[in-house]
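S.,

As promised, the zinc ion run. Input:
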Amino acid sequence: MEVRAEFEKFYDFETDALVVTVYEGEKADEGALKEIDERTGGIVSDMLGTDEMRGKQGDMVYIYRPGNMRARRLLLVGAGKREDFSLDTVRKVTGSAARFLRGKGARSMAVLRRSQLDLGKSAQAATEGALMGLFEPDMYKTENKEERRIDELILLSAAPGSEAELAQGVECGRIIAEAVNMARELSNEPSSTLTPTELAERAKETATRFGLDIDILDEARMKELGMGALLGVARGSDEPAKLIVLRYLPDGAEPMGNDADVIAIVGKGITFDSGGISIKPAEGMEKMKYDMSGAAATLAAMRAIAQLKPRINVIGVMPTTENMPSGRAYKPGDVLRAMSGKTIEVINTDAEGRLILADAIAYARKIGATRIIDLATLTGAVSIALGPINVAILGNDQQFIDEVRAAAREVGERFWQLPMDEDYRELIKSDIADIKNSAGRYAGTITAAYFLREFAEETPWVHLDIAGTAWENERKPYMAKGPTGVAIRTLINYVCNHAAKR
Ligand code: BES
Ligand code: MN
Ligand code: ZN
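Predicted complex:
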């Protein structure tokens, strides 16, 4: 899809569809709406304020061949209260419009700029909204998909603005949305296709294409390093585990020395989680192909970072394996020795994510990370606590947590902090080893985070539990159901913000 800006009167602009936002309670008595009303024989003023269109978010009115203007279709989209209008509204409105218009056979769409929001940022949000909105997890559908697609998104402004600002916004939006969609595609892949080896292959392609360094550790190297936790989980599978390590080094920067600030992103890459010997029930197990969404997010963020080029060192660490039952699988009661030296009693082989992350976090520290963000589809409990709405954020450094939360808020993602009182440590004490991998029913998301904290040790660390938010079960007007790519835009924004601050 091509995205560009035009500075023209909306009624003179030839396009398949003109998209115009309507605020809640708005009348057609001034500006663009008045002009549209006059050119359509008064239908806009007639309809506004009725149940056809109240301007609430999600309201839509579609007119084919609207009166006296060159657009072949007019789509009015409710944008909610004017005072609440934000970049996130731009993203959602553009996404909803793009999805709707694609269904009507439109090939081009022009979105009329009506707000006073920053030009470049609006262009970025609109680009993200359209590209993310149009994503479909349909790679395995054999019907002809070429017939329905939007080729052109035009950002239409009455008043000329800075071309450079616009172009830069569009470029950033494209980089970010394409990275997010790549992650969504990976999460959607069946585990038979996307094995740990294949994930490593895809990471290699991404690294080559975007100029990232990559190191893929095989099981022999993990063994040398003493990664007993990651290897323990991998034992039940015939597919060999991989530890994928990506490095981004800004142009001309000093190689990562001892005192360099290095952000590590660590993502859980379970390509299929059967639960292992503590096997999961059959119902819904097919979804466990997306248990690598943290790793996919890590790869996506690294890809975008390589293109956006913030001035900071970033590493991406993706531990990846299947979690399978077999005659060789690790079992409840086993004791694993993690790379850090800590011993772990396995209570439940389905609590595998924290085990692979334990060694990945320790490895990130070993290779120089000075702050760590891990993200994982880690616990079912996070869905109980926060539903499919908020990502759970926890950590050992309140300022760091606050910075990541602020980064999330800026890009319209919702994160909610859960507590980490010392008292929770009790729950992961083992009778026979240093800690155990499952603490039972209470505070499942917190005890999982507490487990990880033991491996982050003194390094500032933030944990994101995306198990409830990485897969959308409900179709949204602005987004297909399926993998969401949650947290990626936040990660990118955090890294760029942090780099700019120093
Ligand atoms: N991958 C799952 C978490 C999950 C559950 C993600 C549902 C998405 C949807 C994780 O490995 C897991 O099985 N966690 C267990 C931990 C328990 C055994 C302590 C859980 O949440 O039930
Ligand atoms: Mn599991
Ligand atoms: Zn899992």
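The pocket of manganese (II) ion (ligand 2) is lined by residues 273, 275, 323, 350, 352 (CB under 6 Å). The mean pLDDT is 96.

- D.
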